[in-house]
Specification:
The chain is mostly helical and 60 residues long. Helices cover 88% and strands 0% of the residues. Helix 1 packs antiparallel against helix 2.
Length: 60
């Protein structure tokens, strides 16, 4: 089971992932598609890892 502190930390990290995804959209809006793709992929990877972490913690 996750502690309240761990849950809070994960929420903060997910908020950061969402901010990175938003940044990627703004970068794409400025027509820098290669950089936008890098930022987007990085954020998705981080988000996926956090979701996996949350799922694994919920099974304990």
């Amino acid at each position: 089971m996750m502690t309240d502190t761990e849950k809070s930390d994960l929420r903060q990290q997910m908020a950061e992932v969402i901010s990175e995804l938003e940044a990627a959209l703004w970068i794409a809006n400025d027509n820098d598609f290669k950089q936008a793709e890098k930022v987007w992929k990085s954020a998705l990877k981080t988000g996926r890892n956090l979701i996996l972490k949350m799922g694994l913690a919920g099974k304990e």
